[in-house]
User: What shape does this take?
Amino acid sequence: MEKKVKNVFVEGAISPSFIADSIAKHQSKTQIGAHDIFLGQVRADDIEGKTVEAIEYTAYEEMANLKFHEIRESTFSRFEITCMHIYHSLGKVNVGEICLFVFVSSPHRRTAFEALEYVVEEIKSQVPVFGKELFGDDSYQWKVNS
Assistant: This one.
């Protein structure tokens, strides 16, 4: 059975309460022995004497969601994980706020660690999400993923 492509995008920053609620929902899943979480946070990078104040995220949503789906399916086929959730911001996210939340659960910690690293690296290298770094003087530049 083909799994439905999920929309991973949320408008604006991902709140701490959203992250906490996501964790709490897994307490009833008693076959899980480990969770590993990646939180991508907007940095106040200094670029040529100007400081990033926020990043405005845009994406080709349909294409990006399909790529997220492919990464998800690939992760489930490579690792013995119980579940996985990915959320990525769209729109403006201020410095210090969370823009990417990846949550992997498995029976054992080593698997959760390895699966999480795989997912995050695949997202960074494959998903068409674009960040416009916004500066205090109303100028901007397009972010380059590293």
User: Anything to note?
Assistant: The chain has three helices and eight strands. The chain has one domain: 9-142.
